[in-house]
Please model this.
Amino acid sequence: MLALTILGNNSAIPAHGRNPTAQVLQTNDENYLIDCGEGTQNQLTKYKIKKSKINKIFISHLHGDHYFGLIGLLTSMGLLGRTNDLHIYAPAILEQIIQLHLDAANTSLPYQLYFHSLSEEGEISNDKKITVSAFRVNHRIDCFGFLFTEKKKPRRILAEKVKMYEIPEAFYGELQKGNDYVTKKGTIIANEDVTEAAPKPRSYAYCADTIYDESICEKIKNADLVYHETTYLKDLEERAASRFHCTTTQAGNIAKIAGAKKLLIGHFSSQYEALDNFLSETKEIFDNTEIAYEGACFKV
Amino acid sequence: MLALTILGNNSAIPAHGRNPTAQVLQTNDENYLIDCGEGTQNQLTKYKIKKSKINKIFISHLHGDHYFGLIGLLTSMGLLGRTNDLHIYAPAILEQIIQLHLDAANTSLPYQLYFHSLSEEGEISNDKKITVSAFRVNHRIDCFGFLFTEKKKPRRILAEKVKMYEIPEAFYGELQKGNDYVTKKGTIIANEDVTEAAPKPRSYAYCADTIYDESICEKIKNADLVYHETTYLKDLEERAASRFHCTTTQAGNIAKIAGAKKLLIGHFSSQYEALDNFLSETKEIFDNTEIAYEGACFKV
Model:
């Protein structure tokens, strides 16, 4: 399982019943939380996503609509009895902010918090099934996107074929790695005759808040699912640029150039109540687009 | 008009659809915000309370469930175009916390924020119609309650009587102050013959988070409306004390000793989903009690 649930899709302030940015990428083992606007803990409860399975939180940048819900979530996790380690990947100053909040309450968290300062691009997390790398995007303050990539899976053994060729089970591990089997008589059984390739590792690219910048396309190349902000409709390209944000058309272009399979759009300005035009405008450029509605779950 | 609207009534974490503590005391001129748990800005929107009429915010103490919504509200006020001054009354360290959040976003607020550190008891705010004083309560960290008191109003002029005695309008101001009128012939018209006393100034006492402490009764004496926490039902008195909180019975006692006209109870532990027993237990001690349900509005 690799699926993304949207917890918030509005920019700057909560409005029209929409919450500030937060998303959770779920595997069978882990819930990766991506940004954490105010109210995220309520949204996690609402959409029945287990806080106890969140072990890593990725904060793209320190505009409030992307992290004001973090201190509440961290505190609640403690009050709910968490003892497992928690890792936060974020710009450095957030560590001071968290500490100051804890100092003010004369308290500490009952679990170990590991803070990883984001400062360079590259791999930042490496779990059993997923690696995460950070890449810079171009915003008014330091801001990072995150690329979540499944690890390459072993080749799949074809049960009938290995039986037919009488390959011993002890050799299955080698087959999964792609090695050929050599019988006692010296006959070579080609790996591709008894295995098939595993499905291609999937990837999700979260592009955070950014001005239009084609240089990110290389970093998220061929991602199965790309989230790109569309703060404004296409007629407000100048306003978007002045605020280091993007329009529908621009998000569509990024997805197209990057060779994305699917595009999710979000971070809508509060000046828009209806979202229909966001979808139609983006689809003009990149057809396989969906709106990051809150509560919606997208398979990667 | 003097009315209190409840925005949040749960303790520690949001649960059962209940939000952390926040209340707003409304006069015709001002909305006084009292504590500001996470999600307060959404609750203000939900209950149609104008953020633009909030000019003073009172934060009792720096446990997260009483202030984690503040930075989001301050930021949103700025994004919504606020230019009016805003005053915050809170323990000193909150000023650093706010500044660090602003620094992290490399931003400033577009309005003037005046921070008033709470450190001593006594009057902290004096507006046209309302004075506010802070009083210490006994909690795990520095914590203050707030007493909102209407100013004494001028005596009311009895229109028929002033006409009958032919008192000139120029003297009405003196009558309102309680002075007698002396006619040109030297006859004294007693003030009470031509005016009546204004209604007694009303008062609201917010007792924040506190262990059972009868010494606060003197500070909130005869208040028309008293809010007192009831984190636990009466069977958990020991747990309440160990956490510097109170039970239903204790809140009832405080209201009784203080001579309150009405008692509001809130700050319910998340271990309780239903609240009925809070009301019945408190009423055993102090009958005129109501539950501080979210969205409920109480005339003071």
